[in-house]
Amino acid sequence: MKLRRIIAPLLLTTLLMAVGGGIWYSHTQLGNTRQSQQEQARQVTVRGLIGSEKETFFADPRVQQALLAHGITVQVEKAGSRSIASRYDPQQYDFGFPSGAPAAAQLQQQAKAGQVFNPFYTPMVLASWEPIAQILVANGMARKEDGIYYVHDMPRLMQVIGQGTRWRDLPHSNAFATSKSVLIHSTDVRTSNSAAMYLALASYLANGEQVVQSQADIERVLPQVTPLFLRQGFQESSSAAPFEDYLALGMGKAPLLMAYESQMLEFWLQQPDAISSPMVILYPQPTVYSKHVLIPYTPAGVRLGEVLENDPALRELIHAYGYRTGGARKGPELWAEHGIKTPEVIVDVIDPPSQEWLERLIQRIERAFQ
């Protein structure tokens, strides 16, 4: 009897502990299941069309991990910025990410996007070579200031190009006394944003340093700007290929290449030994910014835009690819730490024509190609 009195409470305690443990385990498993379901709901795959110059950024495992921390996996296809708008399809893509404000404005209108994102931007520059830069300096078109080259007389350079001058005809051109015409090489203006930005700059100079904003302006500048593209011969449809030629084929292929500052900086950051090479950046005065504007088509696209604009870790990776951003650190101070000199602030910047007038200019040049 005594033994029963002792064992009974022990059995009851054991039973209560087992029941309690079972309830705790069930709640824990249910909580884990709910957490897993919420995590799965938070994960999203976002598909988009991008300009080719951003392909390496999205392919970087560090960028992919930073995005994955926000539950985002990005799949991209590259296309010329102008053609991104023509391929707008919210059934196939969550966002479009062209390389310039005019193309973005057209895409925003098509997508009826109330919200857009501007995570980074880059100025247009001339990718060139030390001997070429010195020839331009000797002819009064460029100057070197604090280790940085500026084309301070862009009207004069455009005049030399318009006159069909050959490099050997320029005084002090012994380092490049070739029969090649002085030209700024670019991508195909019919498809690519970098060429459209070149057109924006050239048309501004041809229009008496006024942004093209009327049909009369278009008629005035067309005779001057159309040959800038027709005389180049074959042109690539996006900015990656001509820059690869610039790197591989050297000064003889393209003494002056209209490029994004970010392309040069990305190369130097990844190939620091090349910083001391004869490659140089020439900053046109004035220049034009190429704004990389993300246009979301879906809520998933909105999530990506918000993360790219606001995540500090991603902003540092954006700088590592040579892009400028807002925020406390904008890029130049980081690049200086790697021995790359860039203007901290670029003051002499123009706006491109509105999407309507730039598109009309491109269409008129397109006809001249036919």
Would you kindly provide a written description of the structure presented here, covering whatever features stand out?
Helix content is about 50%, strand content about 15%. It has about 375 residues and is α/β, with parallel strands linked by helices. The chain folds into 2 domains: about 45-120 and about 290-335, D-Maltodextrin-Binding Protein, domain 2 (3-Layer(aba) Sandwich); about 125-290 and about 345-370, D-Maltodextrin-Binding Protein, domain 2 (3-Layer(aba) Sandwich), CATH 3.40.190.10. Helix 8 (about 195-205) crosses helix 9 (about 215-230). It starts with a helix and ends with a helix. The relative contact order is 0.17. The model is unreliable at about 35-40 (pLDDT under 50). This is Extracellular solute-binding protein. It comes from Lampropedia hyalina DSM 16112.
List the topology elements.
Blueprint: H1 2-42, E1 44-50, H2 55-59, H3 61-68, E2 72-78, H4 81-86, E3 95-97, H5 101-111, E4 117-129, H6 130-138, E5 143-145, E6 148-151, H7 154-162, H8 193-206, H9 215-230, H10 240-249, E7 257-260, H11 261-270, E8 279-284, E9 287-296, H12 299-310, H13 312-320, H14 332-337, E10 349-350, H15 355-369
Parallel strand pairs: 1-2, 1-3, 6-8, 9-10
Antiparallel strand pairs: 3-9, 4-7, 4-8, 4-9, 5-6
Helix pairs in contact: 5-15, 8-9, 9-15
